[in-house]
Design a protein that fits this description.
Bound molecules: pyridoxal-5'-phosphate
Strand order of the largest sheet: 1-2-10-7-8-9
Number of helices: 16
Radius of gyration: 19 Å
Helix content: 40-55%
Order of helices and strands: HHHEHEHHEHEHEHEHEHEHHEHHEH
Number of strands: 10
Shape: globular
Length: 344
Amino acid sequence: MEEHLFLNQHPAMSAQTQSQASSSLPTYDDVITAAWRIAGVAHRTPVLTSRTADERTGATLFFKAENLQRGGAFKFRGAYNAIARLSDDAKLRGVVAFSSGNHAQAIAYAGQLQKVPTVIIMPKDAPAMKVEATKGYGGEVVLYDRYTEDREEIGRRLSEERGLTLIPPYDHEDVIAGQGTAAKELIEEVGPLDMLLVCVGGGGLLAGSALAAQALSPSCRIYGVEPEAGNDAQQSFRTGSVVRIPVPVTIADGAQTTYMGQKTFPIMRALVTDMVTVTDEMLVDTMRFFAERMKIVTEPTGCLAAAAALHGVVPCKGKRVGIIISGGNVDPKAYARFLAGNMG
Ligand SMILES: *Cc1c(COP(=O)(O)O)cnc(C)c1O
């Protein structure tokens, strides 16, 4: 298929990157099969519009509301797809994931639905609410001390000892393909787009979205949006190799990743138009906009893409613009403070 040729032959990818990664990079075909696997299980989330947002930007905006997805974020798509792809044997033994956030809950939830045991490695100081939610989905929680222990090491040990399959949050073919189904649904529902704005942590959602947009709306320009304090993906995009940064200080806790994946990076380089950043103040303003005007609860990270449009970081006057709202899992007390207008 054309899009695969484009990806593999794109000049932005060095010969070395291609030979290392292209054999296992997902394609739009994988997004199609992921969509088929999650059909009837993941919610087909609504596409929201707002006259006020359109007037403010001069554009026609289409918001894909993944804050209303099962588990409260798009992560359910990739997690469910990755578990569904395992062999019967691997399903019996179970899976392991490490995360304090939405990926862990998505793996526990998707595992429960497919009767696959899950082990989730979480920091001892993770919010009690998140630990309880993960246990509630049937996940076995293993706590670790994030100052003295290495979670990847614990993950490797558990997978060796118990034969568990490790499912990473973004750098995985089936995870990327699953995440791409949100943009696929969006474009199939509203038609071709001029622009698509997607938030970026490790780049799984962006990579999957880019595969879908390139196939379904070839002239669509794709933008990745990061918190200003943690612009490792923007730096990687500009310099052409994966840049690592210290853990950024931002309210966008779902985008505190410090480097892109070996699979997400080359897809971004080949298909994305530009990478931009927004401030925490813009995120708070956007959370309040969603609450007041559109009556939806969003988490700070979920507002990255919308903030770039509403604050003119990516000019979109006169364009048809797709925006993914990535999640809505926010602690109620913190949410109340954000709405009241302070950052704490
Ligand atoms: C995980 C997550 C992100 C970042 O996704 P990546 O695939 O790591 O880029 C953004 N928003 C929310 C709500 C998330 O849970």
